[in-house]
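FORM 7B: Structural annotation worksheet

SECTION A. Query
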Amino acid sequence: MHAQETTFSKLVQGETQFQVPLYQRTYTWQRDELRRLWDDVLEVVEDEQAGKEPAAHFLGSVVLAPERVAAGGTQRWLVVDGQQRLTTLMLAFTALRDRHRATGREKKAARIHDLILVNGHQDGNDHYRLLPTQADREAFVACVESLPTAGGPGNIGGAYRFFDAALTEGEENASSESAGAEWVDAVESVLRDLLSVVSITAAEGDNVYRIFESINNTGVGLSQSDLLRNYLFMCLPKRGEAVYRNLWLPMQELLGPARLELLVWLDLVVGGDVRAKQSEIYRDQKKRLELLSSDEEALEAEVLRLRVRSDRLMRIVEPWREKEPGLRDVLERLVRWGGQTHYPLALLLLDRVDEGGCTSEEAATALSYAESYLVRRLFAGNSTTGNNRTFMELPKEVERELESGRSLADAVRHALSAKAGTRVWPSGTVMRESIRSRPFYKSGRSHQRFEILRRFEDSYGASEPVDYAKAKLTVEHVLPQQPAQQWFDLLAEESGEGESPQELHGHLVHTLGNLTLSGDNARLSNHPFRRKQQILDSSALRMNQIIAGVERWGRAEILARADELAERAEKLWPGPLDGTAHADDEWAGWGELRQALLSTPAGTWTTYGELAALIGTHAIVVGNHIKTRPALHGAYRVLTADGKLSPGFRWPEGYEGPSDPREVLESEGVPFDAWGRAHRSHRLMASDLAMLIGKDDFDDEESLRESASQGGEGVSEASRFEKLLRDNQTPDTVEGVLASLRFWVELGGMLDYGRKSETSCFPTLSLNGSRARSLWPLALYPVAGTAEVVFQHLKRRPPFDDEVLRRELMTRLNHVRGVDLAEAKLDLRPSFPLDVFAERGEELRGVLEWFADTVTRGEACRPVGTTEPETSA
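SECTION B. Predicted structure
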């Protein structure tokens, strides 16, 4: 075998074709892997535009085996390993070509098409430089050929939409049209010439399947911290034994492998390396330590410094170790918030406290500014994408602020207040308006929403504080998500001109003013407010007693409570320094709307109301915004609530396609009925849009599920599900659903139940007896009367991470009369009515049996310890 380092453009040059063999899995990269690659690309782009000498980014290796030279001179290569990287880059170039076309840069678009994507003088399959597996081929060709179905469902379409959205946003956010074009050119330069790959080529006649099998066989590699340890102690021939025994081993035992790598990474970040990656800490630390490699005393001092910092890291991840109450409190709140975003700043502050550079009170104040930055951005709906970068840059910036004479807390506040890139600390005005109007229940993660409501409750200073560890509280809606008619009658009294009670409900229901904490979700349900008052009045929570004290619960009361909570929020989470707020900043909601339209798959449509629910405003406001911006990508996919074309829709100037938006939608796969209404099965709801832009909290649903097999509360949830089912569905539907659930248990499955206001049921399979690895095909909602098919969940877990199996599941379900799942929703959570279980229960049970058998066979064929190649960039 021969190996050489090369660039992507050189790899694919000439009359060449790369074929992905049939024994390979389908394309699997999703948002997380794409985002990591894109972040790496943007870093190199920044260096290039700043005039720095850009370093090539190592993407990984591809293993190729030569095939016969085709007629016409095309050299064919089998892609033994590396199809994820090759396919991803091809899709990135496809989106880049289309970005050039959209802005009139035809020559640049043609260059990409002819030199990277296709073999211009070849026909049929030979025309394409990359030929994916048959399961992916149609979606890939649609992108390369710019067919109407380009960017449809599945991972291929999802990757194309990801790059299309990223390129569009990046160019449009530039300071000028020329700056945007220069930025796109820089991206092209990086993708073409600064992404380094190692091309490993087998000899003709080699057994390529055996090569593939050996590459992807079991095996445990050395971690980054293992490599660093080995290097350090190779340089410590005299002191090594004592250093290992007294410093390294205690640190390793205290932290464990994952936290040890985290510490070594944080050591680089706090030291000023704002681009350090946890996947490359050995390389970066080795480069720094090489200067000391012949000085054992200096190397011992480095290990000692890490050992001392290991104790500080443990105070960050386990705040009970912190002795100072004020500092401990804010560390605990940040741990409950979740994630590691604040770690670089927290480690810098604990360094300062322990070394006498500041008091614990000042460090607590500084950390509270970091907490406020995160909370206010959640209120305002700002993306979390840039948060890690912001906090990685903070230590270096804080040190610079300290040099100007500021105190530590002021230095942190000043650094966070300075707008740079995506760094925006929302002002009080923005926060107050967001609290009044944004769908808070759809923002952030469920535990973050809970933490905010907990802070509000604690701020009332009740004489008997709530024991949150025992209370089993959840976030609840006062105005229910599925209200009875009495609620709509009340809202009808407050609806404005042209606004229905249902629209007013949609605007208010998820806002902060309508949310509280309760341990009585089963009792609250969708009862009238009078009944809820009695339950809330008996609550130990002060904020529930306040809600119970009002006469009614409608628009006026919800907005009044929102204003009261906004006043408290100003005191709990202080804002940026005066004079640093940017009044001309675009409202974050419009950015989300653009992102949602860019992420919408071909073959789907949505409404002004769903977009309004997503971003927290009114459908009329969304309609006016889109009307004045006809160039918005995908605006033709936004229809009226009944699925008809908007009479005010206009194509942007210069558009050369079909004049009828319906013709465009039908070419993408959206069917219309005789009355001109788009089929509802292809409609994207606000929850679908949230998933597409990464805002949903579906992962949190796992923490809200309980197994009936565990007994205890799980049994009561099972009983409540059945009661809700009997209260809201026909007897035939009830019997059909329960018969299918009994059948599932007989197959060896178990039943999990959601603990939200509507108790849902998840027929679940536990893999190898571990609930940490589980699969469920459906989520059953007894009040809404729907069964959701959770492709969104399945696409992340084997064996259904294989798109072929998800498509087969959809096909089998669609063969059941009454089920109509749109192919365009293959990555989402389409649903069908529960009443299908009444007449077609036996057919549905056949699908469930196939699902269980597929999972069992897939698990039996999965070797223990098998690695998943190319799962990240």
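SECTION C. Observations
DSSP finds 36 helices and 17 strands in the chain. Confidence is low (pLDDT under 50) at residues 709-714, 863-873.

SECTION D. Sign-off
Analyst initials: ____
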